[in-house]
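Need a sequence for this fold. Nothing fancy.
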């Protein structure tokens, strides 16, 4: 009976999975707010830290790194403003060292654009513009990560896992609820560090629910736009790999360098290396320190071939040609560690190298 009951449960799960997929769609760049990065330390290194991360931010970057926490408790806070302040990104994590080999961490993330004007009802019944009818709303993405990292019995090897709950809100118009899991590993041999992180290893599901009023429906129809319907969105797994090494220049001066390669499997992208369905994003970073008190960081990431679409001869032409523009984002960072406090700052798109706008990132860490 027990085996029969187990078989029924397995078949039920398989049936539900098939049913979900039959009404779902794989979306490229789905939940992309979870790939931006956290911690000014990591972002200052071009987000190259999957192999060397060893603090509470490991819960996001690579949960295997949690096992290397130095203190029993650690709190990390980050605030950043992207696209010259248009979007606000906030992050908080708290970690607890259970014993010498295992650590638990909880993290919260919010990316939002606030005070967006809703002008759907800007015209009154007489067709006149009435700015008092303009309402403000926010578009925000939220995630909660529960992470666990542990040292294995194999010397130098550690592993970790994330479970994540996702809530996405588009004002009063739409909401989405999702869940997923990540798995990571790190291996240290002498001065070399290796890291692997598989995000959305189970695929991550987002269930979207839309609230379309009659007035909004009329606007969609009048502007020849497709009416949104409730749907299930799937985020495909991605693989983050990295190798890092620490170099000691003098008794008080040293630096860490890391090279990462990130793989996505949801179709061809504008990545530096891309072939359907795989795209590969290289990134690299350096972290120089003086007596492990003052830190100077630099990195580069987001290598892309950006296509330009332009009309050919005249407006009647329907064909386009593609001219790729090479793009990358350099980063700089500074850090100071005093006693149990660490304050870090990072600046992205140094010198306006890419088509993206610069962003400022601040983070604070306290361990005790």
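Here you go.
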């Amino acid at each position: 009976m027990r085996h029969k009951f187990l078989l029924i449960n397995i078949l039920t799960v398989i049936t539900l999975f098939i049913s979900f997929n039959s009404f779902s769609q794989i979306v490229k760049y789905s939940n992309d707010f979870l790939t931006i990065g956290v911690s000014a330390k990591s972002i200052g290194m071009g987000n190259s830290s999957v192999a060397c991360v060893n603090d509470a931010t490991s819960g996001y970057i690579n949960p295997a790194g949690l096992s290397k926490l130095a203190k029993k408790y650690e709190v990390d806070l980050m605030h950043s403003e992207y696209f010259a302040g248009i979007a606000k990104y906030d992050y908080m994590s708290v970690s607890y060292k259970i014993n010498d080999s295992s650590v638990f961490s909880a993290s919260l993330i919010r990316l939002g654009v606030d005070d967006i004007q809703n002008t759907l009802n800007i015209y009154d019944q007489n067709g006149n513009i009435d700015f008092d009818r303009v309402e403000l709303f926010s578009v925000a993405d939220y995630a909660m990560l529960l992470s666990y990292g542990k040292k294995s019995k194999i010397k130098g090897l550690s592993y970790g896992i994330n479970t994540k709950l996702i809530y996405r809100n588009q004002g009063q118009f739409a909401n989405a609820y999702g869940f997923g899991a990540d798995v990571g590993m790190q291996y240290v041999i002498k001065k070399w560090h290796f890291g692997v992180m598989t995000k959305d290893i189970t695929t991550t599901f987002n269930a979207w629910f839309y609230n379309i009023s009659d007035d909004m429906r009329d606007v969609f129809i009048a502007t020849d736009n497709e009416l949104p319907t409730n749907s299930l969105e799937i985020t495909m797994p991605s693989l983050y790999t990295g190798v890092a090494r620490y170099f000691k220049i003098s008794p008080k001066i040293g630096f860490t360098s890391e090279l990462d390669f990130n793989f996505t499997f949801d179709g061809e992208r504008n990545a530096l290396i891309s072939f359907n369905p795989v795209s590969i994003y290289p990134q690299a970073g350096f972290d120089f320190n003086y007596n492990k008190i003052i830190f100077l960081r630099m990195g580069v990431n987001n290598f892309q071939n950006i296509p330009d679409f332009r009309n050919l001869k005249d407006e009647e032409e329907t064909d386009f040609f593609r001219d790729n523009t090479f793009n990358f984002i350099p980063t700089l960072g500074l850090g100071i560690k005093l006693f149990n406090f660490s304050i870090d700052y990072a600046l992205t798109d140094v010198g306006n190298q890419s088509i993206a706008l610069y962003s400022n990132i601040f983070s604070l860490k306290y361990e005790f």
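For context: Residues 28-367 form a domain with the Porin fold (CATH 2.40.160.60).
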